[in-house]
Amino acid sequence: MPRSFLVKKYFTNKRPNYSELESQNAVIPECYPLAELPMRDNSSVLTYYPTALVFNMDALPAPLSPVSPVSPTRPSLTGPLDLSSSPSSSSGEDEEEGGRTSDPPSPVPPHHVYHCLHCSKTYSSPSALSRHQLTHCPGGSEISSIPSQALPRPAFHCKNCPKEYTSLGALKMHIRSHTLPCVCTTCGKAFSRPWLLRGHIRTHTGERPFSCQHCNRAFADRSNLRAHMQTHSEVKKYQCGSCSRTFSRMSLLHKHTASGCCPAS
DNA sequence: CTGGGGAAGGGGCCC
DNA sequence: TGGGCCCCTTCCCCA
């Protein structure tokens, strides 16, 4: 299941072709320009339907209790193996440095006492919970059990693509992928977010702040380090549902299944 | 063909 | 509400 359950994806899951938009935004000020919505003229990419978002709590399923420790985002068949049951094992999965991943592997932090009505997620404050629960509102499949009449329609549409969002903030974030306001001063490549640009700048500077504790190999991206760590693990994270063969990356598993190795699947 | 690294996209969460 | 960061995912390329 894609993580982007906020978005209705009508087309392919491949990256959008921004070449046309890039040509439209060829002149963008350097040095971290501000992201702004192209509101000039009457050609705003924002389509705002002032329909109030009504969150019908009565139409929602009963709260989950107790909270399941199983991650709800893991795919079932082709998803990664659940290795979280042995966090201190020698797989090296949890040995990377810093960040939230170094937190204790407790599935529910003790200060998280507000449970989502739709999934097993918990939050430390009512506001955080209510904000999260809004993500279940739009034509999302995660609440398919709720009658469609009880669900509010997505209110924010992107004019450049068919995506729909439940909040203006989410739409603004998405629009940045069209406007690409962050431009590399070295090569001129544009990005949607400053931190993406920072990661890109590392390709110019050669900075690799994430290093493997097993082989001292360094990486510019934490996710790439995480993928690399899988190569040190004897039991890979992603398992074929048919032949039980494991892979270090989901993409490799997809290649495996697409190659027809396991036609029964 | 397979495995792995590099680069990038994008939604979620916290502050 | 927005910035920053996290995490997952995907594509491309190369050995």
UniProtKB/TrEMBL annotation:
Entry's Gene Ontology cellular component terms: nucleus
InterPro entries for the chain: Snail/Krueppel_Znf, Znf_C2H2_sf, Znf_C2H2_type
Domain of life: Eukaryota
Protein localization: Nucleus
Keywords: DNA-binding, Metal-binding, Nucleus, Repeat, Zinc, Zinc-finger
Protein name (Swiss-Prot/TrEMBL): C2H2-type domain-containing protein
UniProt family annotation: Belongs to the snail C2H2-type zinc-finger protein family.
Main location: nucleus
GO function terms (MF aspect): DNA-binding transcription factor activity, RNA polymerase II-specific; RNA polymerase II cis-regulatory region sequence-specific DNA binding; zinc ion binding
